[in-house]
Amino acid sequence: MCTGQQSLVCIVANALLLVPDGKTWSTNQLSLQVLLMAGFIGGGLMVLCPGIAAVRAGGKGCCGTGCCGNRCRMLRSIFSSAIGVLGAIYCLGVSGAGLQTGPKCLADDKWDYHFRETAGAYLFNRTQWYLCEEPPNVVLWNLTLFSLLVVVSCLEIVLCGIQLVNATVGVICGDCRKKSSTH
């Protein structure tokens, strides 16, 4: 399922945000948006729920068989899809804030959010990116990975939203047709 692949992308992107320049930095040297783990928790684990539910929807499981069983599985899918949508929205919000605020970096012997007051304008002024002495190239690193998280979480919102609508229709309409035998 697509959401599984997108979840993996979010988890890997979040892991990479933790190691700018390929090195380990202390938590007081990383931005809050990195530490909130939105790609790992929101776009990753929470979006895996609808993917797993969709795979399991074909089996009988605890819901049993027949019309009620189908509706039970669809109801389960509604809850897991809603969790997926919420996780993707969390990932989108935190990643967007990470882009707007900018990275925490060392400049003028001070670790701080040196681009916070620019309201995201620093993104279009590459000469400002070199104000960060440590970690090297952290602005490009964060820009690339947070942008990837924004795009993937938007796709996750759409896919989980479609599954949410589909499952809701499935609960309301159900699939209670009698199986016909062919002779």
Automatic annotation (TrEMBL):
Keywords: Membrane, Transmembrane, Transmembrane helix. InterPro entries: L6_membrane (IPR008661). It is found in: Membrane. It is a multi-pass membrane protein. The chain crosses the membrane at residues 34-57, 78-99, 145-173. One of its GO terms (cellular component) is membrane. Coiled coil: none annotated. The keyword Transmembrane helix applies. Its main location: membrane. Pfam families: L6_membrane (PF05805). Belongs to the L6 tetraspanin family. This is Transmembrane 4 L6 family member 5.
